[in-house]
Amino acid sequence: MAVRKITNIFGGDPWTQEVQLTEQNMRNYRHELKFTIKETEREALILVPIKTSAQGNELNLDWEGRNGHVRLKTVKDGGTTLLRAVHNTWPVLKGQYTSNFTFWPDTPEAYTITLNIENCLLREMTRHDSGSRVDQRVQFGYAPTLLHDHVLCSVSEENGSLEVVTYDQHEIDRYPRVKHHVVIPGSQQPTRQHTWGWSFTRKDYSLISSSRVEYSALGPASGQAHFTQWKWFKNSDKAHLLERLIEEVPGEQRRTTEFRYNSEATSTDSVLARQLRAQQIEQRVTVEALNTPSPTEELQ
């Protein structure tokens, strides 16, 4: 008989899954439920530092805790308060709340960092001076995943700088793996892009390639993208080994380094044999001038 299993643990969004109702399934569900109840009811011990010292100086930290949440209140050097934290409410699973951290309070140098949190995710961080003038604002974006709730995928600032990450996900183990990582610093600085290639099979996954491209401030169309690429392979022991490294300066030179390993090594000790087969024994470097047709080769 087919039934729908409905899960709604720790206040998360319900999800349904059609399953075949069998005696074994019922035992599994009971086991999962007992484990969940045990985890939620168990006592947890949270340790926090109340004093820290270095080179004869001592700082005192004051905390507050409730319902499993621990938050910093103040950091003091003797009678001088170095940091004061004010929280408008306790953390909530659904909804918004803010935390304000004031450094050097009650002094002309005071400034405040405000954390705006929504649904347990840090959405925005602002820095403002004692006159409430905003000096800096940073915004954070998130992406849903197959296994976790959300993962950080973007960080942006008002000055135009931006950092973005995209993820590759697969049903094999459902862990998100970085696929693209782009950093746009702004202020006429070069843009950097990192890319990772993953290979997925029914039983395994592996990193097969990665690359790094640096664009000039004029962008990709300027033709000034310096390029570096790495390629990996798995040997007979399923160890990931670097196979090739390609470094290219557009319009000038491409340098390719190929790596050779002691793949035929044997030993009566299986651990030693695997280590020997992963040992690099040769590097073959090819340097190609991109404005001439013939490459030159050197052996290291």
Order of helices and strands: EEHEEEEEEEEEEEEEEEEHEE
Mean pLDDT level: 82
Distance between the termini: 67 Å
* Poorly predicted spans: 1-18
Overall, the morphology is extended
Number of DSSP-assigned strands: 20
Main beta sheet: 18 strands, antiparallel
Radius of gyration, in angstroms, nearest whole number:
27 Å
Strand content: over 45%
How would you briefly describe this protein structure?
The chain has 2 helices and 20 strands. With 300 residues, it is mostly beta strands. Among the domains are: 42 residues, no CATH class; 88 residues, no CATH class.
List keywords for this structure.
single chain, 300 residues, mainly beta, 2 helices, 20 strands, 9% helix
Question: Strands, helices and their partners?
Answer:
Blueprint: E1 2-7, E2 15-20, H1 23-41, E3 51-54, E4 57-66, E5 69-77, E6 80-87, E7 96-103, E8 111-118, E9 121-129, E10 134-144, E11 150-157, E12 162-168, E13 177-184, E14 191-200, E15 205-215, E16 226-234, E17 240-249, E18 253-261, H2 270-277, E19 280-289, E20 296-299
Antiparallel strand pairs: 1-2, 3-4, 4-5, 5-6, 6-7, 7-8, 8-9, 9-10, 10-11, 11-12, 12-13, 13-14, 14-15, 15-16, 16-17, 17-18, 18-19, 19-20
Task: Describe the protein.
This protein has 300 residues and is mainly beta. Among the domains are: 1-42, no CATH class; 45-132, no CATH class. It contains two helices and 20 strands. The strands form two sheets. The protein has an 18-stranded antiparallel β-sheet, with no helix packed on it. The longest helix is centred in the N-terminal third of the chain and has 19 residues, at 23-41. The protein is extended, with a radius of gyration of 27 Å. It starts with a strand and ends with a strand.
